[in-house]
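Entry 14. Structure prediction run on the chain below.
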Amino acid sequence: MLRTIGGVLLCAVMAAALSAQTLKPLVTFNGTNGNDPFASLTYGSDGNLYGTTVYGGNADSGIVFSISPEGAQTILYNFCQQPGCTDGAYPEWLTQASDGNLYGETYNGGSAGAGTIFKITTSGQFTTLYSFCALANCADGALPQSALVQTSDGSFYGTTVIGGSQNQGTVFKFANGALTTLYNFCIQSNCADGAQPNIGLTLASDGNFYGTAALGGKPSPECLYRCGTLFLITPGGQFTLLYSFCVVNKCPDGAIPQGLLVQARDGSLYGTTDGGGVNKSGTAFKVTPKGKFTTLHSFCTGTCQDGAIPYAGLIQATDGNFYGTTNLEGPGGFGTVYKMTPSGVVTSLWGFDGGSDGAFPVAGVIQGNGAVLYGATEQGGDANCSSLGCGVVFQLSAKAGNQTATSGTGYRAENFDLASKPMPISVVGAKR
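Output returned:
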């Protein structure tokens, strides 16, 4: 799975605790109940949270879980239960469909070991729907790690990281048990259209899909395999390149986009890159459906209190602001939850310290029913699970009260103000 920082951590800036904490760990993973939750949570219509971990569970191949409003975790499914892991391994995003069931993908496993599409009910009844690499030379794609998006006719759309005619990824449609490849990346000369679309598609109000490819695009000395693209694709597969990253020397516009786009109320699409920017620590940007591009923020300004490497995409909450996470830096040194205004002003809301509050968030946050955000960190939590922990699901609330990080060493920069009604939730986040 693609990850672009090579495991090199930036300098950690530790911060003293503030008296008013707003982060509450809901689940601390210990391996048995999951390990590494880096796909964003899904807020179910029944009021429960649903999610996955990539590892952990009975076969250390990942789980699907739910969390009740009271904070009780239930494991709904352990992957790799079937011989040869034909049910899949290493699950990621979940999407609640119009039938009330959850749909997702696994990065590995299946009949060819190249990943699957699956369905699971909210009570845990599991069905494998498709195994990738069913065609010769994986012409149908391989290693899916995208968030599925459902259209009004019940069809699902997504991407694969590799496979397809050029082995650089695909856009696909899945309907009635059949998969149709809509686009093969890298079919343009020198992969000018992009390569390896990691995270999936966003369905916009114009009926088209918008997405990013982590690699490919125009030549750049900053990226060995070029720095990525933004694209539009119609439901019928007509592809339009909107933007190539790193078109300016030293990539102030960003590089290697791996977060899901979100369409805001102004009609523009907002997203992040986990490389490039003025400080080479990632950016937040907006792009119009016509391709007009604006860099809004370069991360790791000053002493990196705003965080660095925003793998995750953004959500626009009911207050009109955008919310996301960074994987590194921030006041505690282990990543942040941040708020960004539509004009690009970023404020850290929480700086993870690597203790019981978690460490290194890769997934984005979602807004719950009220002035709360939910998210997860890849590591931190139970140090008995591994030296850095197996991750945490957390609730970040504007109301301090008794919602306190049990380590007592997390950092809260300021309260945030969200409208009390829930927003429509879709999966948001980033990928390796």
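The CA atoms of residues 323 and 339 lie 5 Å apart.
Filed with the rest of this week's runs.
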